[in-house]
Each structure stands twice: as structure tokens, then as C-alpha cells.
Specification:
The complex is a heterodimer of chains A (about 240) and B (about 210). Chain A is elongated and about 55 Å long. Chain A has about 240 residues and is of the alpha/beta class. Chain A has helices spanning about 25-35, 55-70, 80-95, 95-100, 110-120, 125-140, 175-185, 200-205, 225-235; strands at about 15-20, 40-45, 75-80, 100-105, 160-165, 190, 195, 215-220. Chain A contains 9 helices and 8 strands. Helix content of chain A is about 45%, strand content about 15%. Chain B is an all-alpha fold. Chain B has a two-stranded antiparallel sheet with strand order 1-2. The radius of gyration of chain B is 16 Å and the shape is globular. Classes of the chains: A alpha/beta (about 240), B mainly alpha (about 210).
Chain lengths: ~240, ~210
């Protein structure tokens, strides 16, 4: 239905649904988030049935039925006002089975979609993706290149590294996404200059340009692997010249 | 004394007629403090409701069947905030009216469910210059009429009177919910278009019972 090909949603897999008053805005958010997490299913749902500005009950219902098929899960991100109310109405009408598989994020649309897409790519479940989306609204306030939490526990064995940023454009969106994806796959808690290394938004907010020396701290069973992977990615110019 | 499925159908027809008749007034009210689409959206939705009713091949068994049809039609055709708000109001009303006829107490329960739906969806309270300001006194007046032993017509008339007074009460209010809240103090001095359309719908319900 509505241009969505069947069979793309696999069992238990989390998809994203972008609900906007504007078809162009929904599509743009899908492209932006999809660029950083290419394997994630993101359905843009924008505009009225007639293609004007507004939200369409039928389009949202079709998208939610599609992504929850075969036990699929979905996080919905919305823009203003009636996008939220229309989505809630759709969930009320579609019933408990679909409602249990869908979470409506209270998150900024663009930042939330990017964070959610990366969480999906990192293998997060529905609750994890929702938390990533909703955590996106505090990222900007919390980050800023500070030293992080100085009183961090010393009883856990930590792996440290200082890594110099090599690529000319610094740790911008795509390299930050590659790094965050790599870190989220490992069983380790990693911070870089005090921010969560699995959060592309926090990494980007560091504003790390070429030549900056980043301090990495990793804990957990795969802490060493995380340090090595991060070092390789950052010093290899993150796949860019 | 009860109202029946025929009343629900007549209510929907009269609602459509009054919304279309007041289309320009709702547009103008919404233009003053909102985005100006309320009259157009409501008229489109209720014209679609009318089409669904005209297309009925047999009479629905329960009042709730008619209200559910109105709900799903409004949700899918109104657009804007009014679609999910009125859609949810009618949907919740439908869930408590799964019966061929409604007595005075059932009508109060129906209106309460509608109010709860609007509040749940819009997260607005009384005094925030929204349709809640019309729905809430409608429920209060209807409940008082039912307690006083009023028949369905008296209960629905009381609801309409409550909604009219409630709508009028929005004029001096400053909006804190919905599009009008972006205007802040400048929203005062205008009748809220959602409260006005609620009044129109509940007056139509009373008229359908007064035939």
C-alpha cells in the first residue's frame, strides 16, 4: 500500500515512521536519517490524502499496518500538533495488537530520527530505539566538549586512549555515524571526550576538527576491542580523504 | 423515553447541515486566531459523513454503530486537529452506546465519553480556550438535567445550552493550547472556533431529539 513494498520488514525488526504535515519534510527527514543508517527501514508519511499540508489518517494507518506486519516494531516520530493526535487516533482505532508494537516518540523530529535510525542500526529493540529518539532532545544541552564525569568509578578497569582526528572535515555527520555504529555493536561502554560514543549526535556536537586529540575511555568485556576499533576508524580518516 | 438509531442518523444529518451552513463563520473565527482551515475541514468531513449515511443499505442495529461511522469518517477526512479530536470524541461515545436505544443516563455517559476523548487527545483543560470549554459544561448541564428526571430531549437540550454558554465563555480567554496559543494575549476577545463547532454539533443533537 501507498508505495511501500511488501516483505521489507522482518520479524521483530524495528522500523521508523516519520509523520509530518509536509510530504517534502517527511521525505527529507527519511533521507537525512537514512544516509547515516542505510539499512534501516524508514517510512515517510507526509501531507493530506490530496497532497496538501496536513496529516492523513489513512496514510498513517497504512504505514503502521505495514511496519507491524510479521511481528515488526516501529517508532513513530512526528512534527507539530495534529501529527501527534492523528497518530494517536490511528493507534486507538487499529487496536491493541498493533498498538503494542508501536511507540510514539516525544522527540524533536530531525534529531530524534537520526538518533533512532542509528539505534536501530546498532541492533536496539523497541524500547532502546525509543530511548535513543527521546534522548536526542538533551544531547545539545549536555554536550559541548566538557571533560565528562570526572568522578567516574575507578573500581571498573578502564581502557584509555588519546586519538588524533585525521580527516580534514573532522568528526562530522557521516564519520560520527560510522564511529557510533561501530561502538554500539560492541559490548563496551565508551566515552569520547566525555560523551557517549554510541550517540552520533553527541559525537557531532563535540565539533572535533582535524588535529584535535580525543580522549577515549572504555569499560566492559570488549573495552579493548572498542578502543582498537575507534582508533582505527578515527586515524584512518573514517573512510574519507 | 429513549432516543434510537434513527435519532443518531438524524443527528449526523443535522450536524452536516449546520456545519456546512456555518462553514464561512468557522473559517472566519479560525482565521482570527488559528490557521483558518477549521470551517473548510469540518465541512469536508461532514459532507463525507452525509455521503456515508446516504450510502447505507440497511439501518445500523445500534446507536454506537452510527457514531463509530461518524468517527472513522471524520478521522480520515477532516485533516487538521479537528479530525482526531472529533474523531476520538465520537469513537469514545460509540464505545458506550452499543445499544439500539439510549435513555437519559446513557446520553450523559455518551457525552462524558466524548469529553474524555477530547481531553485525552488534546490534553487540554477547561479555561484554555479550546473545544473542552464547550464540552465540559455540556456534560455538567446534561447530568443535572438527567438527575432532575429529564427525558432524553431535555438532557440533550441542556447539553446544547451548556455548550453554547461554554463557547461564549471562550471569548475573553487567552489560549494556552493549540495553534491559537502562539498568539498569546492577542487570542483574547475572539470566540474559539472549536468551541463554536462543538456548540453547533450539540445543538444539532438536541434538534434531532426534538422532532
Amino acid at each position: 500500500m501507498s508505495g511501500v513494498s511488501a516483505g521489507r520488514v522482518s520479524t521483530g525488526r524495528v522500523s521508523l515512521v516519520i509523520v509530518s504535515h509536509s510530504e517534502a519534510l517527511a521525505t527529507g527527514v527519511m533521507q537525512l536519517a537514512g544516509q547515516m543508517a542505510p539499512v534501516v527501514t524508514i517510512l515517510p508519511v507526509g501531507g493530506t490524502d490530496a497532497g496538501g499540508l496536513g496529516t492523513s489518517f489513512a496514510k498513517i494507518a497504512a504505514a503502521l499496518e505495514e511496519v507491524t506486519r510479521d511481528d515488526g516494531r516501529a517508532v513513530v516520530l512526528t512534527d507539530i500538533g495534529s501529527a501527534v493526535m492523528t497518530t494517536e487516533s490511528v493507534l486507538e482505532v487499529l487496536g491493541d495488537t498493533i498498538r503494542a508494537r508501536v511507540a510514539l516518540a516525544d522527540a524533536p523530529l530531525v534529531e530524534g530520527a537520526v538518533a533512532a535510525a542509528l539505534a536501530v542500526a546498532g541492533g536496539a529493540d523497541l524500547a532502546g530505539v525509543l530511548a535513543a529518539a527521546q534522548g536526542a532532545c538533551v544531547s545539545r544541552a549536555r554536550s559541548g566538549g566538557g571533560p565528562g564525569e570526572p568522578g567516574m568509578s575507578k573500581t571498573v578497569s578502564e581502557v584509555h586512549a588519546t586519538i588524533e582526528v585525521m580527516n580534514p572535515l573532522g568528526l562530522h555527520a557521516r564519520p560520527a555515524a560510522a564511529l557510533a555504529r561501530a561502538m554500539s555493536r560492541l559490548e563496551a561502554t565508551v566515552t569520547i571526550d566525555g560523551v557517549d560514543a554510541t550517540s552520533v549526535l553527541e559525537l557531532m556536537a563535540l565539533g572535533a576538527t582535524r588535529g584535535r586529540r580525543l580522549k577515549l575511555v572504555a569499560t566492559g568485556p570488549q573495552a579493548t576491542a572498542a578502543r582498537d576499533a575507534a582508533t582505527r576508524l578515527i586515524t584512518s580518516s573514517l573512510g574519507e580523504l | 423515553m429513549t432516543v434510537d438509531v434513527g435519532w443518531a442518523i438524524d443527528w449526523a444529518r443535522r450536524a452536516a447541515a449546520t456545519v456546512v451552513e456555518h462553514r464561512d463563520e468557522l473559517i472566519e473565527l479560525d482565521r482570527q486566531i488559528g490557521d483558518g482551515d477549521h470551517g473548510e475541514n469540518m465541512a469536508r468531513g461532514f459532507v463525507a459523513v452525509l455521503a456515508r449515511i446516504d450510502a447505507l443499505t440497511e439501518r445500523p442495529a445500534q446507536v454506537g454503530d452510527v457514531l463509530r461511522m461518524v468517527a472513522t469518517t471524520l478521522m480520515s477526512t477532516v485533516g487538521g486537529a479537528a479530525g482526531p479530536l472529533y474523531g476520538t470524541a465520537y469513537l469514545r461515545a460509540a464505545t458506550v452506546t452499543a445499544a439500539p436505544t439510549l435513555g437519559p443516563v446513557d446520553i450523559v455517559a455518551m457525552l462524558e465519553a466524548a469529553l474524555e476523548g477530547v481531553v485525552a487527545r488534546g490534553r487540554a483543560r477547561v479555561g484554555e480556550k479550546t473545544m473542552v470549554d464547550a464540552w465540559a459544561p455540556a456534560v455538567t448541564e446534561a447530568a443535572a438535567a438527567a438527575d432532575a428526571g429529564g427525558d432524553p430531549t431535555a438532557v440533550l437540550r441542556a447539553a446544547a445550552v451548556g455548550a453554547s454558554a461554554g463557547a461564549a465563555s471562550t471569548v475573553p480567554l487567552v489560549a494556552t493550547k493549540g495553534r491559537a496559543s502562539y498568539l498569546g494575549e492577542r487570542s483574547a476577545g475572539h470566540l474559539d472556533p472549536g468551541a463554536r463547532s462543538t456548540e453547533l454539533l450539540l445543538v444539532a443533537a438536541a434538534e434531532a431529539a426534538s422532532r
